[in-house]
Fold these 2 entries.
Entry 1:
Amino acid sequence: MKKFLALILALVMVLCLAACGGNTNETPAPSNEGGEETSAPVKIGVVLVGDENEGYTYAHIEGIRKAAAACGLTDENIVWNYNIPENEECYDKCIECVDQGCTLVITNSYSHQSYTQQAASENPDVEFVAMTGDTAMKSGLPNFHNAFNLTFESRYVSGIVAGMKLKEMMDAGLVTDPYIGYVGAFPYAEVVSGYTGFFLGIRSIVPEAHMDVQYTNSWFDIQEEGKAAEALMARGCCIIGQHADSTGAPKAVQTAKDNGTPVYSVGYNIDMLAAAPTAALTSSTNDWSVFYTYLFKAFLAGEPIATDWAEGYESGAVGITALGPEVAEGTAEAVAEAEAAIKAGTLHVFDTSTFTVGGETVTSAFTFDSDGDWVNDTNEGIVDGYYHESEYISAPSFGLRIDGITELN
Amino acid sequence: MEHKKVHEPLLRMAKRGEMLPPWKAWGIRVIAFLLSLIVSGLVIIAVSGLNPAAVFATMARGAVGTNKSMWVTIRDAMTLLCIAVGLAPAFKMRFWNIGAEGQILVGAIASAACMIYLNKLPTFLLLLIMALTSLIAGGIWGLFPGLFKARWNTNETLFTLMMNYLAIRLTAFFVAKWENPFGSNSVGIINPNTHAGWLPNMLSKGWNGDYAWNVVIVLAVTVAMYLYMNKSKQGFEISVIGDSVNTARYAGIRVNRAYVRTIIISGAICGLAGFVAVSGASHSISTSTAGGRGFTAIIVAWLAQFNSVVMVIFSFLLVFLQKGAQAIASSYNLSKDVSEIITGIILFFLLGSEFFVNYTVHFRGKKVAK
């Protein structure tokens, strides 16, 4: 009897599910809903790796909100999906967005890309954007796009802020060894490009500076980032930069500074003054609304969307946060000068005359090697004496390990 | 107050002398479920001020509202069911297999390896090899704790738990080895163009528009397990050992052999769940391929009291709750914690209802009715 009842219940449940699914098949709900709102027929699907409690995703949410407001889109037009992990759930959500009538779907995490691409290949009528991704060009799919800000530009400028402080400390005799530490997330091009930009910014002020990089193998880990910063300070680093998303490193630096060590922090994404009121010099940041505004405008007008979109200072997509209270004198002027030169195109961050690899000036470099076979996938990277970062594909591709920087792990 | 010679407590709990008839037991469970909906409805009002009916409707829409979401719910329920079915024999004989996570992962590694290295083979052959290697990998992962338990009476809870960590590290190693694009620290979708090693589509057009094969495979395993547990001699041995090891020994059952055999079967089916997860769903592998489902499946197995057919209901219920919770969070801009609280309340009531199925409560002064 019990078994029989269990079977019946199981069947009922399965049938219920089938019935629910059947109903939706018969009535295409999304288009009906769209029909009621004559003013807003478009739907945009957004698939996010976190929610607003997580800094990286928060920056994207803000960017999308701002861009949506600028383009006259409301929450009615946007299907939000928060906390979607980097696995088949991303693909599922992309398809669900399409089912709900979205004709543009955005995913915001690098490792969402593969699933987004899969969805794009199966839905040629829907535009897909994998933020910070790097396979759109190679995929050959006309409806699949990547976008990235030229963050290395703002890292270079934040390096100038750090360099000015370093010079001041050396002039005051507080520091003899111009030793920089950097807390990086993963050992790949996005991080390498970032720390090299930061380092070259510092070296434009203090040419003898050298830097160590400690990886945490995580994008967000307050404890590990704090520990990495402590380890670097124990080795004698007096400025700690970072390419990881938490406040772990700035907090550790503030604690060390409060204990009398002359150390300063350069953050990422958000203003670190709340976490490190006196130790924070500045942070390099992204303003994603610049891209999203471009995207929504092109999408609404029915214009083609760039396969790879990458912009920086020129359009205000990157920048640095407010300078901390203890920056060196003249920092604001130096920052303004560098920003103007980058905007004017007279300053190239990866100018080959400013760095060497193995003691030699570099004359040739890959722009993109997607499969690790040491064959360049796209154009030559170094033309006219500088590395053309993010010009062929939007994702950072500068992977050279230049002299003066040591990766500790 | 009336004086009594024997002080009687206000509430007295006693184990039921005999099993409740099924309709009563299920009645209790359904009432518990309805109560949990009421309580979580109150919590929703208290926390967010939203209309609970609308919230539950959103939940249902999120889980089964579109063709795709319904299939996703079915697919994930099937994976969870497969793991729970794998755990059932081990738990039934009181062998605490906490290692499903690891067994899923090694099965997943085996499947992914076949997809990457044997992608030239014909579909059917490749899928067969993938399924077999996953079974073997999961079985081996179960074998070690089983052997050690049989030989040296080691604690299987700790042993299987530790095997999980080994499997996670092993997965991380292979993810680093197979990463694509190079340097990305993720494997991405394997064979995105050829679909080699993907469970093919059965019903509709396009690849994996549905997951009917997942359903067929897992239900076949479920039925087989039901027959094994209820109709076979080995299944009977398992239930005897679960009730009393000494009785089993006295009856001449070779307990150690049964331990090793059962945990191999348990591990192998969890390994097969890894195959279903990789070939039938993610087409990729990461350290989160198991994603805690090895532990969730324990709840499924216990709620169903190791009856593999009843597990179908609870797998669907749990996945339904999970998907619904996600939809609530996204639709109402709530933190995902709120929806997890709702899931927690419902599970609490369901697990709690088992108490009332197995025990009776007597109030002071009332005659105990027989």
Entry 2:
Amino acid sequence: MTGRLFPVIQTGAFIVLALVLCSLIFAAVGLSATGTLAAIIDGAFFRPNALNHILRWGLPLLITAVGVVISFRAGYFNIGAQGQFYLGAICAAFAAEWLRGSPAFVAVPACLLAGMAGGALWALWPALLRVKAGADEVITTMMGNFIAAQLLVHVTSGPLKDPSGSGQQASSRPVDAAWRISESSGSSPVIIILAGLVVMLGWWLVNRTSFGILSGLAGRNPVMVTWQGAKVQRIAVSAFVLSGALAGLAGSVELLGPNGRLASGFLPDHGFTAILIALVAGMSIVAAGFIALFFGALTSSGLWLPIMTGLPSAAIDIIHASIALFITAKAGALRALLTWFRR
Amino acid sequence: MNRDHLHQEAGASAPALTAEAVTVRYGDVTALGEVSARFEPGRIHAVLGQNGAGKTTFARVAAGLVQPAEGSIAVFGQALAGGNVAEARGAGVELVHQSFALPPSFTVAEVLQFVGPRPGLFTRQGIERYWQAWLDGLGLGLDAGARIRDLPIEMQQSAEIARAMVSDARLLILDEPTAVLSPEGTERLFTRVRELRGKGVTVMLVLHKIREVLAIADTVTVLRGGRLVAGPLEARDLTAESLAELIIGETAARLDAADRAALVGAGAQQHDEHSRPDTPPALVLRAVSTSPHSGGKGLNDVNLSIRGGEIVGIAGVEGNGQRELVAAIAGLDPLTSGEISLADKRMDKAPLAARRDAGLRVIPFERNVEGLSLSSPLWENWSAAQLVGGALLAPVSPRALRQSAEKAFRAWDVRFSDAGQPAGSLSGGNAQKVILSREMDSGAKLILAAQPTRGLDIGATMAVWKALREARNDGAGILLVSSDLDELFDICDRIVVMVSGQAVAEFTAPWDIQAVGRAMTAAGRQSAQEARS
Amino acid sequence: MEDLIVAFLRSGTPLVYVALAGVIAQRAGIWHLGLEGMMITGACATIVGIVLAQSVVVGLVAGALFCCLLAVLFWFVVEVLKANQIIAGLGLTGLGLGGTALALTAIFGSEAAVSAPFGLPRIGPAFGAFGGLSVLVAAMPFVILACWLLLCRTRFGLRLAACGEHPFAARATGVNPAKMRLVALLLGGPLCALGGAELAAGSLQIFSVNMTAGRGFMSFAAVIFGAGHPVGATLAAFFFALVGALGIRAQLAYGDRIPSSLLLALPYVATVIGLWISARIRGGNAVSSRELGQQ
């Protein structure tokens, strides 16, 4: 049992360390550390309708995070969740445009599938560059994020531009109200069921299939799996494409759900937050379910902070970044640190 | 003995190395326990013992790489704080590592420059000229401009020795220097070591073959299980039999004489006669070639046939195509020409999964890299072989896999507490047994065993040999790659020598170590010259 | 043509400075994905320093100090706590991006862009069309030369490379790889600060949130493309910059026909292609472990 408990304690310890760093930074820029953290927690969990906000932000993150778990477990650092999320939303928006006028029971699944296809394609090219040429996926998927962001600017100000829109942000025409799967400000049973399905399928894939066990081994030691005769390239591409498809699904859920339209630069931190969720959850799909809700709460708090308390929303970015900095640290290293200082 | 007299002598010329109750622990394991010994200057000292006896740890303590938990070390009368390489180098200790500590992309000159005493800006030609002159003075026959990764293994060792000599080492420690050398290369190394002794350098050789110890050492120190058994003893008073007793200890009685001689490298080359059955070949290679790639030349026109029920050994200095041969048979290295048949089926282009289906099993070179995923649970490591043939989306039952794994582990006497524990938590011998339990099932028709006993202690080595013999008796063909000629002589039916990616000679019992050694180096020297020019 | 060269040097110089920092870290064995965060910190500190203290020197020194602070933090996390370099690097980048936004709100009350009354000194009208370039552009060749000498022609450089390529070889000769990596990261700190300073104060004299827009990552890609060699990384950085400058040129010429946002994506596409080419040339490793638990 201690074997299972240890990673949890280690993760907790390093999150505390991350919060200490955040407090130092808040103090350095003249914010009250305790006051800021209290306001963030208050905004996350104790404002009116908090649960609805948590689900609204947490569930799409969860869908993307399950994908991130699948690719990270297989040993591929698909940093491109953000770009795959955007491509999913873009493809879903195009599908919505072409299907204008068709009934919801056709259009909604078609849009969701289009989103998954878009995300999968945006993960496929880095995957092929990786396994065929050996180009490092961290940089290619990262560049994919920037390219996808420019593509989003392009479609929202070009092909899908909303002619009546006048805001600072370019955006697309809103999707048909009948196809929306949730209100603008909340979650809905459809999204909850979708996220539940993704978690169940993800869990099954990771824990109860040949792919799950082999990709887990390949992620830790691809050479060994090669010497066992597994097709490592196929596993790699599958893991990439699955994670891209899930990020794309999250993009189409955001489009048909709370957002209702494409807007350039929307949810710019979605991918990074999903990566954090996967890491904090220690690559466990079930844990990711809970952690995603926590990060959903933080995200919603980030939007609430500037409005209600005048605190900058960048405070949330700092918390995210600090957690990223420390989350992969190893407790055993602290002991090594002590011996190092004794030298 | 008169203690006062001894003390006076020590004052006149302090011992090269004095260890006082040195204890080293890695976690719960005691690698060295209260080892005390003193080594006189100007002599050649051998430190002898089986794998896991603590020889390398002792060498590393002396060189400042490992900090002892208790005890103290003094070099030429100067006490060391320990755990500090710079301090040990300052006192004149240099260690030549078993797997050389040389960055592969560096040239020899760069290696010497980086450890050497010359700071400031340099030019490439400048350091090459300077260090070439220095190397020529040393008579090592090294080219200062050659890159480490392009050098044959014996030359890499020379470079490592040169590196150690840069700081005018007074105590030179060589950790298992002969493990990678041919018998002739070993002879050349010993000549060099004697020359160093002639120049007043104290040399400590970490060895595990009695034959070599008796050929070179002035004194012998034996370690077993991290404890000092005896020493330093005067080598001239010792015999192979008395040393074997010291090395192996009380388990010695249980071992078969040939196995025992092979274990300690005592030189007996008997062979348990095994009637070779007239079975169809399990493996046939016809004119197989592979393309050269980083770090290797590739295979060149290799013909080889292994029948079911025989063990064929591959001898050769490391880096002469053994890895390429195993990779080619496993289907991980594509053939440029030639044919491979497994159990009478052509498999030139078949993937490894298909070859496994046909009865191929692999015990790979690198146990901890190619053989096991150390951070993954034991049962996942074991299950991989069951899963690779099927569809990726095939449903599996972790519980059932876990149970079969546990059953297999128990049958192979793996000491484990939980099939969910990471493979890295096992000792080397147990880890190898996990691999055996996975690879040596009843469906095995051809087993590639690459260095299967490297780094294993006596018990585990015996378990591996027993398993290989049993598999042979059950009709499997076995390809055994080993750099330990004693091991090959002990259990093989035939031995093929590889040089530069070619199978150059074949031997059968009774073995002639000189002839095999000549075959290993004849063309080896050629390739060394190629690398120089 | 001169316009193009000026635009090219302006967009290339920040990349080169930051890429050199990445090269030094890479040689010591650190994948420095925190470059982006250090670069924006340098950019922010320079502009804020100029605005508050009316002094370029104060801005540059502040930038260098903050970058060194981040370097120490990064070193502590990856070397002492053994965190994964890639994730920790992304965290450092997030800290830089978020921290600069936070600093702007703390100092000026909002995240709006801040413009400075003056920027880095220019090399002057004596150079004609190039007179508008900053001194950092002019200093660049010397910085590249210094880096090359340090890394490829000194014993220190060899030790650094040994720490990256074969840490045991370094340890076996009494060199402490952990300390060498700290030195490498600390050397990179001021270089990142200069890269950020050139970006913000070289020609624009403005700082806005997220203004680096992936240039730090592009610099890192230049390190990979350039095989960890200072000259190679410089050439790679200039290749990315050239594509960017041509994109801007094309925008002016064909803006009505090709959507500008797609032209803005060109440097990122070039980076991907660059990585692809370098992987093909060097036969990149198709399977390599990225396990989060690996040391």
